[in-house]
Amino acid sequence: MAALQDQLDEITQNTRHLVQPERMAPSERAIEELFASGIEERILPVGVVAPEFALEDASGRVVRSADLLALGPLVVKFFRGRWCPYCTTELEAWRDLHAQLREGGALLVAISPQTSRQSDFMAGQHRLPFPVLADPGCAVAAQFGLAYSIPDYLREYYRSILINISFVNGDESWRLPLPATYVLGRDRRVLFAQAHADFRVRPEPEEALAAAVAAAKV
Q1: Of 78, 93, 137, 162, whose CB is crowded by the most CB atoms within 10 A?
Q2: Superfamily of domain 23-216
């Protein structure tokens, strides 16, 4: 299987081939501004204790991090939404590794600001075997240092390409998380943390998988 970043780079190359540079300019500008804001330096780092959370899954059932961590280390995957091809590609990579993760004694949840109904559509469409949780207004993402507001010019850009984020998220906050991957030990301590202002860049799942399985053996 191709490395995740190679798959994501192919999406970027195809997009640049199909879309005129001036149409992509708002997205490129937003990435630069987000990086310049220093948000990457403010994410919850390795070594600290992560906040607890209780969020609804795709069926509306409340899933608690404390219950999951009682069973083993937890990979927490923050993503933007089902409308983002980079996110769906990444979650499919985790889908393909999920059996290996579970055999290693660890668990995985995916978290985004989209509604439970949207998560239900997504889990079915992409055959995701792990909980997909709704984080309204990016409240939990904010506790991990990942939440930001989409600037007005980017809102207009998304509307122009028929991505209705306020509808998908079920509110008017226009908040998104940085795509991020965390591994939490059973004591909620952060063992792995990676997030990028450029949503086109993601860590290889195998890196977090290794950290989670190693923690399960302790």
Answers
A1: 78
A2: Glutaredoxin (3.40.30.10)
